[in-house]
Specification:
The complex is a heterodimer. Chain A contains 13 helices and nine strands. By secondary structure, chain A is α+β, with helices and mostly antiparallel strands. Chain A has two domains: 97 residues; 239 residues, BirA Bifunctional Protein, domain 2 (2-Layer Sandwich), CATH 3.30.930.10. In chain A, the strands form two sheets. A seven-stranded mixed β-sheet of chain A has the order 1-4-5-9-8-7-6, with helices on both faces. Chain A has a two-stranded antiparallel ribbon with strand order 2-3. Chain A starts with 17 loop residues before the first helix and ends in a 6-residue tail after the last helix. Chain B is an alpha+beta fold. Chain B has six domains: 65 residues, Phenylalanyl-tRNA Synthetase, Chain B, domain 1, CATH 3.30.56; 123 residues, Beta Barrel (OB fold (Dihydrolipoamide Acetyltransferase, E2P)); 199 residues, Phenylalanyl-tRNA Synthetase, Chain B, domain 3 (3-Layer(bba) Sandwich), CATH 3.50.40; 70 residues, 2-Layer Sandwich (Phenylalanyl-tRNA Synthetase, Chain B, domain 1); 222 residues, BirA Bifunctional Protein, domain 2 (2-Layer Sandwich), CATH 3.30.930; 88 residues, Alpha-Beta Plaits (2-Layer Sandwich), CATH 3.30.70. In chain B, strand 40 and strand 41 form a beta hairpin. In chain B, helix 9 runs antiparallel to helix 12 and helix 16 packs across helix 22. The chains are: A alpha+beta, B alpha+beta. Chains A and B meet through helix 5, strand 1, strand 2, helix 6 and helix 7 of A and helix 2, strand 2, helix 10, helix 13 and helix 15 of B.
Chain lengths: 369, 852
């Protein structure tokens, strides 16, 4: 390399000639702009920013210039390299963005193809309806009581003022155990749970008792030998039929909504006195009286009303049997069939689908209703 | 109980324009539920026809129809075409010459069913020959109505073709049918229902005309001798406390019942038979007193009412020979020959016949319990027994007899004996001292004293406001004779509420103060059910009734506790007399049903009680109900109820994971069942141990897991069903199953989970492969590794199992990943290697494992 030449005329070093520097920049920018992929851009970067690029070579020449010329040449080449560098950065970002965009397009799938590799499970709606009612009453401060399905006759009948000769006892078609004198039956109602509770707990008592019950009915559109009831019992000081109505109204609201139409009327149940029956408007015929017609409504039999369930003030005899003083405490009880509640609330027309265990039935309801 | 509006109108005033539905609605307001409505919605021509001829015509569908020509008088085709009516009829229960009921084109039958001439089976049928249900007369559709059978030969003989059948059968008169509750025996009469309808109208003054208010003669000497000799009353109540006998002689047995009576009996759903029988039925329907008519010529001694003797036999009117029980109350001839089971059914020997001229009318009052027991014992529910067991008015006896006598005299041409038998041992009802504020306290409506007293008087009670014990708030109430159900304050409160209107009762939400929410067990059971559904299983419910041979089909060993099943005395089906001892026992039916309906992939579960009596069924005591049974009796009562553990059963067949765009599916196998139980245990945070169980029915001996708590308590079993069980129960091949005791898991989850600290230092992982004999359980290897690895071991995961050519025969290779982590520092490689070696050594000594 030659020594410093203070008389050197920069114009004479062609690589540093402003026109040449400018041309190199133009070439570089043209190549960078033309790069259509990150690979192209990489080649352009090597060609125009690499060690053998015209501007790198020009930069090297600066050292040989006299000090007076160095500043100007340095500035010119520096600016040129800056322009190229910036163009590279901009193009790099553009191409990367394009690539990222393309990957997302390339990776697109059809998300409407089936995604569930395993069928989801579900609960049985009878259980869900019972749970819904229980939860509402628990929320109001009631507790849940339970009892066995195979029950003593005394708890299922006698203690509920259904003596051996009572006509009402014959209305219930009971499954008796063999031997018949074992005094055991499949419970025909959830009411023995009331008796068990009253025998074992001091008032005040506010319990709700859901459960399976049994009657010797053959399966048809409205009957099943195994079905479910939910029953409420309250024993406290000063309870009246007005409280019974209040609890029943709450029950109906929870289950069927505010708009449900009901009617109450006197009825007879051995375990209550006074007794009360609540009916709701038939969900199948919407209360249109179809009796006497060629095809009376199969759901309500034509009256336009469906029995929700029996209720009443607990019979004083029953309280005495359970060791509760009827002069101090009074109480009420009511119950209803959960199958009916399910039918009304969810438009289930028959009984077969509820009891047959066809998975398609349960699967409609998921994990909560 | 039925009631034609025309009959109701005789005893009380119908509201202006009231139709059947209005009457039914009124009765509902006072607590009598509507059951049905009959008649009233029919327009003619509906006429009597005589079958002149018919031709049998077999049809392609296998039926044979009758192409009939019927004389319908001056109606139908006779008017338009000058010939007899031509009708196609599908029924076969009639002959040429029979009188039938024909509906002609232009008529409208109940339900808006309009009749027109229409082409059917190759003919134009000009109307129909009617069955009972088609004209709203009853529910019978076994054939068409033949009038001689429906109304009796005598009545039928008075009819001519063309007569209006709507009037004949009372079809224009609506009949309301109500459901009578067991406490309202008096409503088994038009008398009682009319009274209730009158109450529903506000009990207007003079608006009720009691048909039982007739003059009755007092007992005289010389009446037919009657002796009441009940030597073993039930609960101290005489089987018969009143017996009225009246005799009507010289009845012309050929005289038919009047047509209005036949019509009413038909409307009430009863068949007219003969004047004497029809009269007893008519009076019973009118005033609720069952009557019996004896042929006087067939009686030889006095009427003696007594209990049956052991071994006595009576052939009842239904031609069934019945062996009597010593609780049965009998009407006997001279104390010997049984004539009737009191209040239930008469015997054939003393029945009135078509030659009877002298009739003894029995009007008696029988004990409800006695009649109920006899009715139940002999499986004989009759119009009489229904009324007696619910309570018949003991004061209507003589009036009923008088009404019957009057009708027999008027329509049968007989004369009544002057002598009257009336043995009366009934006692007057005693008055009840009623606190008039009590109805308000029970019902929650502030009834003024005058309202309470007024309602009770309307009901027929005698209310004494000045007798002993009465004051501002107390009155003496004597209930009417027809209301045996009115005994104490709640009974009267119900009556006040009922007549005042149940809809006047306000609604007050009760406010319990100290509810504790669901118990742990109740919450935990929901967790179990939800976890199983979350694991992809569908909850179902099955009937718990199972067949006897099921125990064999499930291959249960002879001494298995699950063979001790409870047997029903009266199963719905003799093929399924037992209650399930496992949930799987009844769940298999559900699986099969789903498969039979074309579903290949089924995964179901059920939570429910099973019945495990253990040994023989004990006897539950039946204590009295007057007071709380003593502690010992209650203990016996509870103990007599067999154990009923709550269990879960799971069954699956087909694909556990579906085939799809991702690749092939995966068949449900034993491991899905083990996983389901583990999922439930994990949901309850209860650790469980899995072991191979080579001998637990109904599982495959090589594919059955026994699942226990850490302390060894059995939870249940899971795996694949035994191939023989699968075959015996006709299940899909390789059906998998699990069953576990929910109560055990619930109890094990009762204590609050105690949190363990965990380290935030980095984990160190190391993999090992162990060669073990094929019969060594992976669970045992894992247990040994865990025990040998020391406290820093965080987890052991079996990530590969290899059996094949690359290793020694009869062995398999188990590859584990051990993860270690110390609570206080990062472990060094040397430390981890030491732990690993210790773990391998422990596995080697416990299971013979060799590191590969």
């Amino acid at each position: 390399m030659s020594g410093p030449n203070t008389n050197y005329d920069p114009v004479e070093v062609s690589a540093l000639d402003p026109a040449n520097v400018d041309a190199a920049v133009q070439d570089a920018i043209a190549a960078i702009t033309a790069a259509s992929s990150l690979d192209d851009l990489k080649a352009a970067r090597i060609a125009h920013q690499g060690e053998k690029s015209p501007l790198a070579l020009a930069n090297r020449e600066i050292g040989a210039l006299p000090p007076s010329a160095k500043a100007e040449a340095g500035k010119r080449v520096g600016q040129a390299r800056g322009r190229v560098g910036q163009a590279l950065t901009v193009r790099q970002a553009e191409l990367e963005a394009e690539r990222d965009e393309r990957i997302l397009v390339d990776e697109r799938v059809d998300v409407t193809v089936p995604a569930l590799r395993r069928e989801p499970g579900s609960r049985h709606p009878i259980e869900l309806v019972a749970q819904r009612l229980v939860d509402a009453f628990v929320g109001m401060g009631w507790e849940v009581a339970e009892g066995p399905e195979l029950e003593s006759e005394w708890l299922n009948f006698d203690a509920l003022n259904l003596g051996p000769d009572h006509p009402a006892r014959q209305m219930q078609d009971t499954f008796f155990l063999d031997p018949v004198d074992s005094g055991l039956v499949l419970r025909t109602q959830t009411s023995p749970v009331q008796i068990r509770t009253m025998l074992e707990q001091e008032p005040p008592i506010y319990i709700v008792a859901p459960g399976k019950v049994f009657r010797t009915d053959d399966l048809d559109a409205t009957h099943t030998p195994v079905f479910h009831q939910i029953e409420c019992l309250a024993i406290d000081k000063g309870l009246t039929m007005a409280h019974l109505r209040g609890a029943l109204d709450a029950f109906v609201r929870i289950m069927f909504g505010e708009e449900t139409r009901t009617r109450v009327r006197a009825n007879y149940f051995p375990f209550t006195e006074p007794s009360m029956e609540t009916d709701f408007l038939c969900f199948a015929c919407h209360g249109e009286e179809t009796w006497g017609s060629a095809e009376p409504c199969r759901t309500c039999g034509g009256s336009g009303w469906i029995e929700l369930g029996g209720s009443g003030m607990v019979n004083r005899k029953v309280l005495r049997t359970c060791g509760i003083d009827p002069d101090v405490y009074s109480g009420f009880a009511f119950g209803l069939g959960i199958e009916r509640a399910l039918q009304l609330r969810h438009g289930v027309q028959g009984m077969h689908e509820i009891v047959e265990g066809d998975v398609r039935f349960s699967q409609q309801f998921g994990m909560g209703v | 109980m039925r009631m034609p509006l025309s009959w109701l109108a005789e005893y009380t005033d119908l509201a202006p324009g009231a139709r059947g539905a209005d009457v039914a609605a009124s009765l509902v307001r006072v607590g009598l539920e509507e059951e049905d409505l009959h008649g009233g919605d029919i327009t003619g021509p509906l006429v009597v026809g005589r079958v002149l001829s018919f031709e049998l015509e077999p049809q392609k569908n296998g039926k044979t129809i009758r192409w009939c020509t019927v004389d319908v008088g001056q109606n139908g085709q006779m008017l338009t075409e000058g010939k007899h009516q031509e009708i196609v009829c599908g029924a076969h229960n009639f002959e040429v010459g029979d009188l039938v009921v024909c509906v002609l084109p232009g008529a409208v039958l109940p339900g808006g069913f309009a009749i027109s001439a229409r082409k059917t089976y190759g003919h134009v049928s000009n109307g129909m020959i009617c069955a009972e249900d088609e004209i709203g007369l009853g529910h019978d559709h076994d054939g068409i109505i033949v009038l001689s059978r429906l109304l009796g030969e005598e009545r039928a003989a008075t009819l001519s073709p063309g007569d209006d059948a709507i009037a004949l059968l009372g079809l224009a008169d609506e009949t309301v049918e109500t459901n009578v509750t067991p406490d309202r025996g008096y409503c088994f009469s038009v008398r009682g229902l009319a009274r209730e309808y009158w109450h529903a109208q506000g009990s207007p003054e003079g608006g009720y005309r009691d048909p039982a208010e007739v003059a009755t003669p007092a007992a005289t000497a010389g009446g037919y001798p009657v002796e009441l000799k009940d030597d073993s009353p039930i609960d101290g109540n005489d089987g018969c406390d009143r017996y009225v006998a009246r005799i009507v002689r010289g009845i012309d047995p050929t005289r038919p019942s009047p047509s209005w009576m036949s019509k009413r009996l038909t409307q009430m759903g009863m068949r007219p038979i003969s004047l004497a029988v029809d009269v007893t039925n008519y009076v019973m329907l009118a005033v609720g007193q069952p009557l019996h008519a004896f042929d006087v010529d067939r009686l030889s001694g006095s009427v003696v009412v007594r209990r049956a003797r052991s071994g006595e036999v009576l052939t009842t009117l239904d031609d069934v020979e019945r062996t009597l029980h010593t609780d049965d109350l009998l009407i006997t001839d001279g104390g010997e020959q049984p004539l009737a089971i009191a209040g239930v059914m008469g015997g054939a020997s003393s029945e009135v016949s078509d030659t009877t001229t002298d009739v003894l009318i029995e009007a008696a009052h029988f004990d409800p319990t006695t009649v109920a027991r006899s009715s139940r014992r002999h499986r004989l529910i009759t119009e009489a027994s229904k009324r007696f067991e619910r309570g018949v008015d003991p004061r209507v006896t003589a009036a009923a007899a008088q009404l019957a006598v009057d009708l027999l005299v008027e329509h049968g041409g007989g004369t009544v004996d002057d002598a009257v038998t009336d043995v009366d041992r009934t006692s007057e009802r005693t008055a009840y001292l009623l606190d008039v504020t009590e109805p308000a306290r029970i019902v929650g409506v502030d009834y003024p004293r005058e309202r309470v007293v007024g309602i009770l008087r309307d009901l027929g009670c005698v209310v004494d406001e000045s007798g002993e014990g009465t004051d501002d708030t107390h009155v003496l109430v004597t209930p009417p004779s027809w209301r045996p159900d009115l005994v104490d304050a709640p009974d009267y409160a119900e009556e006040v509420a009922r007549i005042d209107g149940y809809n006047n009762i306000p609604s007050i939400t009760p406010t319990p103060s100290d509810g504790r929410g669901l118990t742990h067990a109740q919450k935990a059971r929901r967790v179990v059910a939800d976890a199983l559904a979350g694991a992809g299983l569908t909850e179902v419910l099955s009937y718990p009734f199972v067949a006897e041979e099921l125990a064999d089909q499930l291959m249960l060993p002879a001494d298995d506790d699950r063979r001790h099943a409870v047997r029903l005395a009266n199963p719905l089906s003799e093929e399924r007399p037992l209650l399930r001892t496992s949930v799987l026992a009844s769940l298999v039916d559900t699986l099969r049903r789903n498969v039979a309906r074309g579903r290949k992939d089924v995964a179901i579960y059920e939570l429910g009680l099973v019945f495990r009596p253990g040994g023989a069924i004990g006897t539950a005591p039946i204590p009295g109900v007057a007071a709380r049974p003593d502690a010992e009796t209650l203990e016996q009562l509870y103990a007599a109820v067999p154990a009923q553990p709550r269990r879960a059963g799971i069954l699956a067949t087909g694909q556990a994971e579906q085939a799809g765009w991702w690749g092939p599916g995966r068949a449900a196998d034993w491991s899905d069942m083990v996983a389901a139980v583990q999922t439930v245990a994990a949901a309850l945070a209860v650790p469980v141990v899995v072991a191979n169980d080579p001998g637990h029915a109904p599982w495959h001996p090589g594919r059955c897991a026994r699942i226990t708590l850490v302390d060894g308590t059995l939870v249940g079993h899971a795996g694949e069903l035994h191939p023989k069980v699968v075959a015996a129960l006709d299940l899909p091949e390789r059906t998998v199953a699990a069953e576990f005791d929910v109560d055990v898991l619930v109890a094990a989850s009762a204590e609050p989970v105690q949190a363990r600290p965990f380290s935030t230092f980095p984990p160190a992982m190391t993999d090992i492969a162990l060669l073990v004999a094929a019969d060594v359980a992976a669970a045992d290897v894992e247990t040994a590794l865990s025990s040998g690895a020391g406290e820093s071991l965080e987890s052991v995961v079996l990530f590969d199992v290899y059996e094949g050519e690359r290793i020694e025969a009869g062995h398999r290779s188990l590859a584990y990943r051990l993860t270690f982590r110390a609570p206080d520092r990062t472990l060094t490689t040397d430390e981890v290697n030491d732990f690993r070696d210790a773990a391998v050594a422990a596995a080697a000594s416990a299971t013979g494992a060799v590191q590969r």
